[in-house]
């Protein structure tokens, strides 16, 4: 595998650009990389997973970073707006296919009122 990687990655042209050597064979010189070149230039090719370092399953399943309060709020708001859009009839959309903002606000405020009624009076 390493030899194949060397062949693919290290057989680069090390001579000046070919236009300087028109009509000669000088523009076609190639060189092979040494093991040291491979270690410094292409360490990812030589890396192999070891038994001592198993992959971390937690990293694969968890998000890159925790959700912020902003993201949590708008994920809930998005669900609420999508539910409101389902309640709006097709006659409440304009010619561009967008919902009437007044109708959408009316449905959202009604949902909010129903939600407050469902939770009961606040204990403030």
TrEMBL record:
Ranges of compositional bias, category Basic and acidic residues: 103-124
Organism name: Trieres chinensis (Marine centric diatom)
Region (Disordered), start-end ranges: 1-31, 47-66, 89-124
InterPro entries membership: HMG_box_dom_sf
Stated name of the protein: Uncharacterized protein
């Amino acid at each position: 595998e390493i030899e194949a990687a060397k062949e693919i990655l290290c057989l680069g042209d090390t001579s000046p650009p070919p236009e300087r050597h028109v009509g000669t064979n000088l523009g076609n010189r190639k060189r092979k990389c040494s093991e040291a070149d491979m270690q410094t230039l292409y360490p990812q090719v030589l890396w192999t997973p070891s038994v001592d370092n198993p992959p971390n399953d937690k990293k694969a399943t968890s998000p890159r970073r925790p959700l912020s309060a902003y993201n949590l709020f708008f994920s809930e708001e998005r669900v609420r707006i999508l539910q409101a859009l389902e309640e709006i009839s097709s006659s409440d959309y304009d010619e561009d296919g967008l919902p009437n903002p007044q109708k959408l606000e009316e449905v959202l405020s009604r949902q909010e009122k129903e939600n407050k009624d469902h939770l009961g009076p606040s204990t403030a």
